[in-house]
Design brief:
- Two copies of one chain form a homodimer.
- Chain A is mainly α.
- Chain A folds into two domains: 67 residues; 67 residues, Winged helix-like DNA-binding domain superfamily/Winged helix DNA-binding domain (Arc Repressor Mutant, subunit A, Orthogonal Bundle), CATH 1.10.10.10.
- Chain A is 61% helix and 10% strand.
- The first copy, chain A, has a two-stranded antiparallel sheet.
- The longest helix of chain A is centred in the N-terminal third of the chain and has 20 residues.
- Chain A is globular, with a radius of gyration of 18 Å.
- The relative contact order of chain A is 0.12.
- The mean pLDDT of chain A is 95.
- At the A-B interface, helix 1, helix 2, helix 6 and helix 7 of A face helix 1, helix 2, helix 6 and helix 7 of B.
- Chain A binds a DNA duplex (30 and 30 nucleotides) through helix 1, helix 3, helix 4 and strand 2.
- Chains A, B: InterPro entries: HTH_MarR-typ (IPR000835), WH-like_DNA-bd_sf (IPR036388), WH_DNA-bd_sf (IPR036390).
- Chains A, B: Keywords: DNA-binding, Transcription, Transcription regulation.
- Chains A, B: GO terms for molecular function: DNA binding; DNA-binding transcription factor activity.
DNA sequence: CCTGATTGCATAGCTGGCTATCTAAAATTA
DNA sequence: TAATTTTAGATAGCCAGCTATGCAATCAGG
């Protein structure tokens, strides 16, 4: 076929993303974590107390998705949401002690999954792949 | 941080996959299609009458996911499911005329999205990206 | 031939992504 | 200052992925 499934970038990226997600899911399940919370945790481990809006813009995710993710994280004792005293609309998001303690093992799990999923590539090829994806994300035509 | 979010392959792949999915979603919406059906359609456009099991193994997707996807496709008039006379457990999946007619415009939309999402890369870089992803998928450590 | 294991599929229930829409709090402007 | 617009967040409803489980048809051994 003129649109070979294994030759289409979009098809391959979707497949590879599923492979990654499946692997990471099993690796962080023992920690009580799920994949959807991971990007949020990375931001908050770096900078605690961000607003929901901050997270939305930093992670390129829809506001509604972020709100739901934060609700699950709150339910699971990973974060607290406190209204910003300076702006009654905003809520600042703070990690619990439990979530702070998960930083090291969670990152180790993610690195292990990166290794496993890219086991077929040389170190140089992995760097190339990362560089190409970063460039693609930087240069995509919006809309 | 030691695990730079923009340097992690898994993080980038997830992000890029979302970018692709968003773009393709809007492009194929006018055709009455959604992204989840796309891989299935590619297989059936190539080989009509596959069983659900065939699709599951070819697409590396869970059986339950495939069953749900096929239900939506049936509801939307894209496929028919017929029991295999030779094996009462199997169901063979056949495209409707409507789905067959969507082949050309759907593939054109996917190619357009590939172009847009990889607009920041040269042609050579796109080929490299595709080759690296294929190699990664071929060589990942299972489990 | 009958029983038990295997196979193909459906369903329930969850996460996580999206759009659309609503509310309340600021911010702007007439 | 009062009315309007903009902004932050929540919620409803959908698609798409997953695991776990149940059921019915087939297959394999005894």
């Amino acid at each position: 076929m003129e649109f070979l499934k294994d030759g289409s970038a979009g098809y391959l990226i979707n497949h590879l993303a599923r492979v990654f997600a499946r692997g990471l899911t099993t690796r962080i399940k023992p920690l009580g974590l799920t994949t959807g919370t991971f990007p949020t945790l990375l931001e908050l481990w770096e900078t605690d107390g961000l607003t929901q809006k901050d997270l939305v813009t930093r992670l390129d995710i829809e506001q509604a998705t972020m709100a739901n993710t934060l609700s699950r994280m709150e339910r699971d004792g990973m974060i607290l949401r406190r209204r910003d005293p300076a702006d009654g609309r905003s809520q600042r998001v703070f990690l619990t002690e439990r979530a702070r303690a998960l930083r090291e093992p969670a990152i180790a799990a993610a690195q292990a999954e990166n290794e496993a999923a890219l086991a077929g590539l040389t170190l140089e090829e992995r760097d190339q792949l990362v560089a190409l994806m970063r460039k693609a994300l930087a240069g995509e035509t919006p809309g």
